[in-house]
Design brief:
Layout: E1 7-18, E2 21-32, E3 36-41, H1 47-54, E4 62-67, E5 70-72, H2 77-82, E6 85-88, H3 100-105, E7 111-112, E8 115-116, H4 118-132, H5 147-160, E9 165-169, H6 177-192, E10 196-200, H7 204-210, E11 213-218, E12 221-227, H8 233-241, E13 259-269, E14 276-286, E15 290-294, H9 301-309, E16 316-321, E17 324-325, H10 331-336, E18 339-342, H11 346-350, H12 357-361, H13 380-393, H14 411-424, E19 429-433, H15 441-456, E20 460-465, H16 468-474, E21 477-482, E22 485-490, H17 497-504
Parallel strand pairs: 3-10, 3-11, 6-9, 9-10, 15-20, 15-21, 18-19, 19-20
Antiparallel strand pairs: 1-2, 1-4, 4-5, 7-8, 11-12, 13-14, 13-16, 16-17, 21-22
């Protein structure tokens, strides 16, 4: 009996099926008390499904869950919370029109004599945010804050409930390098306090830095559990994808040609405050180069992309794409002029979740004669055939192929679908915002190759990334954004992550010419 109680949670022989797919095939996972246990696997390997079974969002067809050696039934997230199990989801479960504070206390409201005591809740939230370095504005609306801030809200929601088993589903996908380091410290502190952590990640360096043990899933099956002190990233990636993965981006030097995108004195207002989110920004992107906008989340990168893509109106400035001024053009006209866009938030701006995969793959082109009759009826067979070609080329995994609902796919495969749709149109300028967010090492390698191939065909790419490794290895030029302005231009061959970090934090700035 003593042996069993070594584990805070045991998931024994779990099998979970969906139409057309066995998401978890006889998987066993054992979480020790006070350990950080990583769960690693490709996109669609079944990691989030397994954690959703533990959190009560799904019920497994077979298998047993034990807590402290005793069999438990978890039929809903309320059951999980009652057992002290909390979860930060990869796609946040937040009410957009509520404040940060209201989201954190939702379902766990502090009351006194039947009255809601937000002042007590606020004090507890501020104490927790201070203790764990999770800075938030309790009164900000969720719809107005950055994804990184929403992530912190989710973590505080879990800590507010005093949960002792914490599930982090891809927690670092939306964070900056500094925030990731901070989160690693927080996770270690939580584990030292006796909390047990399940940590889903694709990022091998993070797993090596923070986890005690790691369980690897591949295509729904458990490949094995290893001690982190006895393994290395290459061995883990082989377990995960079944082959060796190339970690260094292989590319020849860029050969920039004509200017594709010319941005001059662009200003985009902020929704959050009176200042401008993008303030008088000028730069060019040429054919055959990848220009990266680097910066800490929340320094105007999102609004810059919104201004370029037409999701936000610009108050002044010029955007010239392929010789045409587009700053006042409707969104569809911008895409017709040669723009492609991999958005930061795949759910909000990238997909219609209740559409099938095949309909999502033609969102940019359904009105063209290839897919639509002159009377506006969709040509379903042609759309399906086109979608199946993209699914095969980009290795998009889904239970029912082209007819799968986008909502039913894993986050990484949703991302692959957006990348396939945008790149297949061969836009002359691709806005790629966090293109590898939530992807595993094998898929990241594939996306980087696709981006470089797109560049080598003579197209321009404006990459926005919070991953310094990606910034350094993929880009041909780096522009650093700080507080809505471009504060420096760098050559990735001659700069260092440390130098970029100083500019990203606002400690240094260069005098920029009219065209950076």
């Amino acid at each position: 009996m003593e042996e069993k109680n070594e584990y805070a949670i045991e998931m024994l022989n779990i099998t979970k099926r969906f139409p057309g797919i066995i998401a978890n095939d006889n998987v066993t996972l054992q979480l020790k008390r006070g350990e950080i246990h990583a769960l690693l696997g490709e996109n669609g390997a079944g990691k989030s499904t397994l954690m959703s079974v533990l959190f009560g969002l799904y019920q497994a067809e077979e298998g047993t869950i034990k807590k402290d050696g005793k069999t438990v039934e978890i039929k809903s997230p309320n059951d999980a919370n009652a057992l002290g199990i909390g979860m930060v989801h990869q796609h946040f479960k937040l009410v957009q029109c509520f404040t940060v504070l209201d989201n954190i206390i939702l379902g766990q409201e502090t009351t006194q004599h039947g009255l809601l005591r937000k002042d007590l809740a606020r004090k507890k939230i501020l104490d927790l945010s201070e203790k764990y370095g999770l800075k938030v504005d309790p009164d900000a609306l969720i719809e107005d804050i950055t994804v990184g801030m929403q992530q912190r809200t989710e973590i505080l929601k879990m800590l507010y409930r005093d949960n002792e088993i914490l599930i982090f589903d891809e927690p670092t996908a939306v964070l900056t390098p500094a925030e990731i380091e901070e989160l690693m410290k927080i996770m270690k502190n939580l584990a030292n306090e006796g909390k047990s952590i399940l940590f889903i990640s694709h990022k091998l360096a993070e797993i090596m830095a923070v986890a005690d043990r790691c369980t690897v899933l591949r295509r729904g099956k458990c490949i094995g559990t290893v001690n982190i002190s006895e393994t290395d990233p290459n061995a883990l990636s082989r377990m995960m994808v079944g082959r060796n993965v190339q970690f260094v981006v292989d590319k020849k030097d860029a050969e920039p040609k004509d200017v594709i995108l010319h941005v001059e004195n662009l200003t985009v207002p902020s929704k959050l405050h009176n200042n401008n989110a993008v303030n008088n920004v000028s730069f060019d992107v040429r054919a055959g180069e990848i220009v990266c906008i680097a910066g800490i989340d929340g320094n105007g990168q999102t609004e810059l992309v919104y201004g370029l893509s037409g999701l936000e109106n610009c108050t002044s400035g010029k955007i010239v794409l392929n010789g045409k001024e587009i700053q006042s053009a409707p969104i569809r006209s911008r895409y017709a002029a040669g723009l492609g866009h991999i958005p930061e938030d795949r759910h909000k701006h990238g997909l219609v979740l209740d559409y099938s995969l095949m309909n999502n793959l033609v969102l940019r082109s359904y009105f063209e004669p290839e897919f639509s009759t002159k009377y506006g009826f969709l040509k379903k067979p042609q759309i399906q055939e086109y979608a199946e070609g993209l699914i095969e080329r980009y290795d998009i995994r889904s239970g029912q192929g082209a007819t799968t609902m986008a909502r039913a796919m894993s986050g990484g495969n949703q991302q692959k679908a957006i990348i396939a749709r945008e790149l297949d149109r061969e836009p002359s300028l691709l806005l790629a915002v966090q293109p590898t967010r939530g992807l595993d090492v094998g898929a990241i390698e594939g996306v980087h190759k696709e981006l470089i191939a797109h560049r080598d065909k003579g197209n321009g790419i404006l990459l926005v990334s919070l991953e310094l490794d990606e910034v350094m290895s993929v880009s041909d030029r780096i522009l650093v954004m700080y507080e809505g302005e471009i504060v420096g231009e760098f050559d990735p061959k001659t700069t260092t992550p440390e130098e970029l970090g100083l500019y990203m934090a606002g400690a240094r700035r260069k005098e920029m010419g009219k065209n950076a």
